[in-house]
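Translate structure to sequence.
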């Protein structure tokens, strides 16, 4: 077999690979604000806790977007995965975000929900920081 035949086969394979990539739907980029809004939507418990300090869910999500922008990639991925899990576990159950957080914390090895303790801590920290900042200084997160 000569180089010419190999070149044709390689070109054919490359073309097939490109066609396969073109037909695979690209995963949409995560929109941190949308993800936060989905996670906190309808969470009256969270809304009430924030209201005590003069903040609201919008302030929380604004703070999340601010904090998320400074995360390293691994923490960002863990946080987004955790937020998706919270959304999934809240859907149609009437559970609050805090209810779900307690369930996840009780699952220390991650066997039930897929978030072992260290992954949960890493993913939850930016969410906790966002809540704290929204409660103590919501104006620092709002667009000016």
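Result:
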């Amino acid at each position: 077999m000569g180089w010419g035949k190999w070149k044709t086969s390689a070109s054919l394979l490359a073309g097939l690979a490109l066609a396969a990539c073109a037909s695979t739907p690209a995963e949409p980029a995560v929109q941190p604000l949308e993800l936060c809004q989905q996670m906190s939507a309808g969470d009256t418990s969270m809304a009430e806790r924030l209201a005590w300090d003069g903040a609201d869910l919008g302030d929380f999500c604004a703070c999340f977007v601010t904090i998320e922008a400074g995360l390293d990639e691994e923490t960002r991925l863990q946080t987004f995965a955790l937020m998706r899990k919270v959304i999934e576990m809240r859907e149609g159950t009437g559970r609050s975000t805090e209810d779900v957080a307690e369930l996840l914390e009780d699952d220390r090895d991650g066997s039930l929900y897929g978030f072992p303790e260290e992954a949960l801590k890493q993913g939850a920290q930016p969410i906790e920081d966002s809540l704290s900042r929204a409660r103590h200084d919501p104006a620092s997160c709002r667009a000016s």
